[in-house]
Structure formats: C-alpha cells, structure tokens
Amino acid sequence: MMRLSLLPALLLAAPVHAAEQSPASASGLLQVSLGLAVVLALMAGAAWILKRIGVAGAGGNNVVKVVGGVSVGNRERVIVVEVADQWIVVGVAPGRVNALSTLPRQDISAAPADMPGTTSFAAWLKQTVEKRNGHQ
User: Fold this and answer.
1) How far apart are CA 79 and CA 68, in angstroms?
2) How far apart are CA 65 and CA 92, in angstroms?
3) d(Cα 129, Cα 69) in Å, to the nearest integer?
4) Alpha-carbon distance 91 to 53, whole Å?
C-alpha cells in the first residue's frame, strides 16, 4: 500500500527533475541530432555514388532492358522494353503501366529514319495539322 502512495509523489517530482537537467539534455539532444544528420548524409552520399557508378547494372544479368521510349505528354511515355526475345510496348503514366503491344525482337538498325518512304511522327503530325487547317 505504501508503494502506491509513493507513485503520485514520484510522478510529480519527475518534471522538476527533468527541468533541472534541461541544459544538459539540450546539448545531448543537439549531439544526437547532429550525429543523425551525419549518418543520413553519409547514407545519401553512398546511394548517390552507387547510382553514379551503376553498381545495380554491373551484373549484366538483367532480364528486362529498355530499348527506347518517347514522351507523349507531360507525364506520359511509351517505352519499348526487351524481355528475352520479345519486345513489349508499354504505356507509362502516373500510377499506371499498361502493356500496349508485343513484338518479336528486332534489330534497331533495321529501319533507319532516313529511308525513303518513311516519315517521322513529327513530320506526319505537321502534315496532318496543315491539312486540317487548310480545310477549315
């Protein structure tokens, strides 16, 4: 019974005891905060260095390889990825990734842009806009 009566007295005395040590605990808190900041800075620096030297791609055993891509909007892209002997055309938007089409693996140099009869998307779009403006 005596232990229960001491508990409120100890709880009331605890804030006074903590207030007496505030200068020492403030310097301790500052020291811990600075130590944490140094450790976080070291981790961020190590991650940046590993990203710059490309440690993740050094293995050469990547199953998925990005062949190319094009931006079709502010935050939307169409990307061609190679998996085994197949190309997958993927639409990427914020929060979404959709497979659009699959193709057999092709040589990239098989259809150069300067071949006669092939036009770039930009040229096609310009031609289409000019046709539309001419009809209106």
Assistant:
1) 6
2) 16
3) 24
4) 29
Task: Tell me the two tokens of residue 117.
Answer: 């009869």
Q: Is 30:43 a contact under the CB 8 Å cutoff?
A: no
Whether this prediction's pTM lies above 0.70 is answered by no
CA distance 132 to 127: 9
pLDDT tens-place string over residues 55-84 = 655 555 678 888 888 888 888 999 889 888
- CB distance 56 to 49 below 8 Å: no
Structure tokens at 54: 């490309």
Q: Which residue, chain included where needed, has tokens 């006074």?
A: 16
Tokens describing residue 129: 């806009």
Which residue do the tokens 């929060």 mark?
Answer: 95
3 state SS of 74: coil
